[in-house]
Amino acid sequence: MKRTPALLVAPVAALALTLTACSGSGSSDHDGPVELSFWHGYTEADGDVLQQIVEDFNAAHEGEITISTQVNPWDVIDDTFLPALSADNGPEIVAMPAERLPVYADRGAFVDLDDFYADDEATPDLNAGALDMVTVDGTAYGVPTGFVPLTMFYNQSLFDAAGVAVPTTWDEWVAAAQALTVDEDGDGTPEQYGLALADHATVGNGVWPSLFYGNGGAIVEDGQAVIDSPENAETLEFWHDAITAGKISPTGVDGVSGDGLFSSGRVAMYIGGPWMATVSEENGIDYGIAPIPAGPEEQAASAIGVSMALTRQADQAQQQAAQEFFSYFLSREESVAWALGSGWPPLRTDVAADEVDENPVVAALTEQAELGRPLLPGVVNSTDVLTAVDDLTQRAMAGEPVDDLLAQAQTAIQAALDD
Amino acid sequence: MTTAHAAGPRKRAYRAPAPLGGRPDRSLQRTRTGGRRNRTALAFLAPALIIMAVFVAWPMVSALQLSFTDASGFGQAEWVGLDNYARIFTDADIRDAVVNTVVYALLFTPTAVVVALALALLLTNDRLPLRGLFRTSLFLPFIISLAVAALAWSYLIDPQVGLLHYWLRGIGIDLGNVLQDPTLAMPAVALVAVWKNFGFYMVIFMAGLQEIPGSLYEAAKMDGAGAWSRFRHITLPMLSNTMAFVLIFAMIAALQAFDQIYVMTGGGPYGNTQTVVMEIYESGFRKLELGFASALSYVLLLATLVLSVVQFVFFGRREKES
């Protein structure tokens, strides 16, 4: 039987291929340096700086620790991280949007880092809000890599042309937006809007939380839903009136289309994250940065956070090596380098704005850092909470009665918290 | 290859797949070389079967297992019995998603089938010039990925930068922000799927149409039957096998709606395009409730199976009657 072996080759080869595809995780059972893989979603200039930090760390730990990085964009990191984790084929270190950390921590994906933080020499004083976002039920499960309050980006040329000053309160904000809204052909659809106020899937999900804080409201406090408050009702009505009466903002905008509107010069003011600086420069927009104008009660902004964590897949040696990397990353020198390169303000509280003033965006954001509030810290089911907030704001801006919407949101959010 | 061994010679010879709704061809069963053909066939099928077993059958079995646990995808999972299944039938979000999926299926399936059939009729008409060109270009959308098509369409209908939007406004139609409009979002995502899939159904219909003997039409013409009555009494009945195939395929595609919704609306506005598969994705990958997501997948699988069998039986009976 000459044929039989030939016929069997194909299936066996197919099987072998499948099996090899499943292996290949970075473990440290053998001698030689401890190997760590590190997944993150920093794809722009920040990615290059992070790569440099990792390479410097590897060089300083030649023969002991080798970290290899892999980029997985933030919006799809769950799609690759979860299957990898379930196949025991994931990274030892993973960075993810900070509000995604609690659900993984709650399900036991991460190593608790309380001991790491207990060592004062290894860990400097970090921004309190950033630390809140890595803490679940009082236990720390991660190290912040970024924490930045949302800020207002404005188009300097449009401001100059209209002779408008940068607003500092909500009333000034609406007035400025009205002055900057232009409907030349009078068809009721402005060609230029004063503001792009996203009503769902906003930048870092933080636009509406920021506005709620401004009027003394909140979404979740001490594990309880507090969204159904007269303050929040006022906030929604104020902005609904401003948008429908003055047409100062297009409706149905989300974070992505908002970025596009500002970078195409079609809106004068926009709430965004630090990357808007680069995006504006690339598109030739002469921009300025200011804090989100103060609400009637408070000046506060929801922060965008990114945290990195150590997965349960890491063995003892890998855990130690990873903690060594965390300390290195948080060291004064690397913190400053990371801030300057990433455009995000430094996480250490002992780095002042003038130390990072060679990057004016970072200096401006550092001054605003204390306005930043963590988004849903420790909330495991942030997915459903954020969906409920999106539902609420989108319907409210479409003109549905605010009181009913708030009551529904309250129920939905409380249910998500009680899960 | 224990299966090849156990099957034994001659008893289970290779059989051509039965035509949909038709009878299996018995003549092949009597082939003398049955045993050898059997082994050879299995050896040739083995690569595909192994891939199916590893990537389809095994995941299905594991998913079934997962569906009775509170698995999050990693770490420990506890047996929770039928809790996940019970939750599916009580969860208000799931109920909304089922309603949305049915609405989507009702928008997608008939539109796709009617458009495909109409174009197939047009393209099998000898009087139409450049038929080859039309056939190819109408089939093209089918070969691109739905996610890519969805991205392209979101740009086209974007209210700020969309070309389609701009043109429509030129002739006085303002659609507004289609994907954020609670009534228009669902038809929009369904239409993108129609645009992407009708080419495939069209080709199937064309194959079916070409099998109808021309003599039937000639005879009908002689008897004075008009175009409509030829379509109604010859084309449609003769196409019923093809129609069953296309309808079942279109319905399965509709029940699995995900890609373009994920890309274009993310389930919004306010959950109006949140389908069952979107719910499965969100439970599994966002909330790390893989056990629940698996249970939901199984319920969807069973629902699809039941609906397919119902259609199959329905068309099988109609064919018998005619």
TrEMBL record, chain A:
Record keywords, A-Z: Signal, Transport
Q: Which SUPFAM superfamilies match?
A: Periplasmic binding protein-like II
List, in alphabetical order, the Gene Ontology terms for molecular function in this entry.
Answer: maltose binding
| The UniProt record lists the keyword Lipid biosynthesis | no
Please give the organism: Cellulomonas triticagri
Say which family it is in: Belongs to the bacterial solute-binding protein 1 family.
Q: Which InterPro entries match?
A: SBP
Question: A Pfam family matched by this chain, by name?
Answer: SBP_bac_8
**Biological process terms in GO annotation:** maltodextrin transmembrane transport; maltose transport
* Signal peptide per UniProt: 1-21
- The name this protein carries in UniProt is ABC transporter substrate-binding protein
Q: Which GO terms describe its cellular component?
A: ATP-binding cassette (ABC) transporter complex, substrate-binding subunit-containing
Q: Kindly list the residue ranges recorded as spanning the membrane.
A: none
Entry annotated with the keyword Transport: yes
CDD domains annotated for this entry?
A: PBP2_UgpB
Residue ranges the record marks as coiled coil: none
User: Which PANTHER family does the entry mention?
Assistant: MALTOSE-BINDING PERIPLASMIC PROTEIN, MALTOSE_MALTODEXTRIN-BINDING PERIPLASMIC PROTEIN
UniProtKB/TrEMBL annotation, chain B:
- Which Gene Ontology CC terms are recorded? plasma membrane
Q: Which residues belong to any copy of the ABC transmembrane type-1 domain?
A: 98-311
Alphabetical list of PROSITE patterns matching this protein: ABC_TM1 (PS50928)
Q: Name one Pfam family in it.
A: BPD_transp_1
Q: Mind telling me which residue stretches traverse the membrane in this protein?
A: 40-61, 102-124, 136-157, 184-207, 238-258, 295-315
Leader sequence segment: none
Membrane topology summary? Multi-pass membrane protein
BP terms from Gene Ontology: transmembrane transport
Q: Where is the region Disordered? A: 1-34
User: Where are the annotated coiled coils located?
Assistant: none
| Principal localisation | membrane
- What family name appears in the similarity comment? Belongs to the binding-protein-dependent transport system permease family.
Q: What is this protein called?
A: Sugar ABC transporter permease
- Which species is this record about? Cellulomonas triticagri
Organismal lineage: Bacteria, Bacillati, Actinomycetota, Actinomycetes, Micrococcales
